[in-house]
């Protein structure tokens, strides 16, 4: 998704801006651009389609430097992927502006500005903001006043950063529904970005802008106005993230690094919360004591991989804690006008905490009479965490690969703990709680053992690399694991992959099965194993090639047309979704590498989807 970096200093900021764009590359984008105010007061603009390296080539061919600048990576929404549509957009040769989000009333604003003589050089919704601000400065306003007035005309979602070549003492910014953070530099310099990761080499001190804030950033002063136009101060946070937490190290791709980080990420997520025989309820925050006793139902809402985590959580909550649970994708929920059963907890799951649909769903839920809202999230400073009544943080660390891996398994660990916290409140037998707590505590070690299958999985991958389609099967909690496996494969290898609950095979997908359709099955040793085995026979009888990730005691033997990967022994029901996800991540990864795709930044996808 689009990325923003801006800087005002006494030195050249071009390399800071380019480095920031590199650090935001993981978000997914299709074009980039930079605008600098050079030493002679000239506005310099360079833009390029494709990766940041293309922009760097442009800059080598036509260098520019300066102490004020803004840079952007664009993920196209309005208008195709062209240089003219890339940001920054410039108005009147003096206003340079970058924007994340979508302006919903841009058509009306565009006609109004065209009537005033403005010529539009792009097909974007963004360009109207640049011209609108230009029109206001032309009328005699300073940039700050112009921005404060212009944002009142905008509807939709935006994080904007703008400078005026004729006022070289400031950058102005504003946000609604799209994140923006000010980085406080030393010695008369300040920064702004859509994500703290862009600025970690320059500063660790950040001010997060709230909904509707407008700010004026000077070298030595920052002034912020809130939605009601009152001057406010926002707290300064010291980030604990290190700049190298987002380095790839010895790994060929971030995704592989993040798969291998799972034992540590899981251990961190469980530590200090899972105390031997119970879960520390206080980790959900001060509202937990008030809300949890009222919970009779749970309604989970999320997108993408986080939605799959929700589907697993339904088993934890219904089978484990005996509490009714429904799960839904956020983009549907927010427009469905749902009926809320009394005593229902709204649970939003999101790695980033900034996904537009999930955030909108949370805001809708707050009006609807839930007993409370809870976020499972990986980013402590995110909007989702700030706006929910309770939050349980995953401690996966920054996830850079667009295809989510460690965020998913740590979400499952957090959801397992939430299930235990609810079961404790519902007066479950202490020995049962203690048993589940011990099983959860073993997961990091089991995942570590599972990673040892990597060389065998790489071998299997060679047999998928030339395929067009793949089918994933699972039953019970292994069905969402199969869904996640199929999502990983399609996201990064571009092989069409679908997942089905294995019992549903005969109601349609069996028609697709032939020797060209590899069928991947997730077969832990649980109450549904025998049923799954019958379903696998149905595949074999049609000449389908089976690849089964199986418990050592599953009684599934390798044979003609059946390849079996033996998983670690004694995986309990609670543990299986976490452990069986890992080989599916590795399979997708190796297939993608063999097919030569861009593993960490797959085409058309974005890490954090901050537009609807
Ligand atoms: C995007 C990402 C997915 C992610 C989904 C939800 O589509 O590419 O990996 O699962 O957004 O993101 P969230 O941050 O809300 O978990």
Automatic annotation (TrEMBL):
Protein name (Swiss-Prot/TrEMBL): Glutamine--fructose-6-phosphate aminotransferase [isomerizing]
Coiled-coil ranges from the UniProt annotation: none
Gene Ontology process terms (BP): amino sugar biosynthetic process; carbohydrate metabolic process; fructose 6-phosphate metabolic process; protein N-linked glycosylation; UDP-N-acetylglucosamine metabolic process
Cellular location(s): Cytoplasm
Keywords, alphabetical: Aminotransferase, Cytoplasm, Glutamine amidotransferase, Repeat, Transferase
E.C. no: 2.6.1.16
Domain of life: Bacteria
Active site: 2 (nucleophile), 607 (for fru-6p isomerization activity)
Catalytic reactions of this protein: D-fructose 6-phosphate + L-glutamine = D-glucosamine 6-phosphate + L-glutamate
Role of this protein: Catalyzes the first step in hexosamine metabolism, converting fructose-6P into glucosamine-6P using glutamine as a nitrogen source.
Subunit note: Homodimer.
Every Glutamine amidotransferase type-2 domain range: 2-220
Database matches in Pfam families: GATase_6, SIS
Keyword Transport belongs to the record: no
Keyword Oxidoreductase found: no
GO cellular component: cytosol
Cited HAMAP family: GlmS (MF_00164)
One GO MF term: glutamine-fructose-6-phosphate transaminase (isomerizing) activity
Main location: cytoplasm
Residues of the SIS domain: 287-428, 460-602
